[in-house]
Amino acid sequence: MEKDEAIKLNNQLCFSIYSLSREINKLYRPFLEELNLTYTQLLLIVYNAFLLIAYTVQFLMELVTNDCKNKGKKDDVFLFPVVLQT
């Protein structure tokens, strides 16, 4: 590939990723407009839902493990930090 061809915008990886991102946003836009959300807000909601599930599983596993190890003893309850942002 010639030097001039290599520097053209269409041959740059970052431009391809940017173009793909724009196309994905176009696909989601009609659904998100009904919910009054942006694609970035949707990703944040999905991420926070994943964290909530992960921390809940962690909490339940610790609860079961501590219950098996310390029959009858009281342990501090693990509180998990989940921040929902919109």
Radius of gyration: 23 Å
From the spread of the alpha carbons, the general shape counts as: elongated
Helical proportion, percent range? 55-70%
Low-confidence stretches: none
Provide the structure class: mainly alpha
Total DSSP helices: 3
How many separate domains make up the residues?
2
Separation, N- and C-terminal Cα atoms:
45 Å
Please provide the ordered H/E string of secondary-structure elements.
HHH
Tell how many strands the DSSP assignment holds: 0
- Average pLDDT works out at 78
* Proportion of beta-strand residues: under 5%
Structure commentary:
Helix content is 67%, strand content 0%. It is mainly alpha-helical. It has two domains: 1-36, no CATH class; 38-86, no CATH class. 0% of the residues are buried. The model has no long low-confidence stretch (mean pLDDT 78).
Q: What's this entry about, in short?
A:
With 86 residues, the chain is mainly α.
Keywords:
single chain; about 90 residues; mainly alpha; 2 domains; 3 helices
SSE blueprint and pairings:
Blueprint: H1 3-6, H2 13-35, H3 39-69
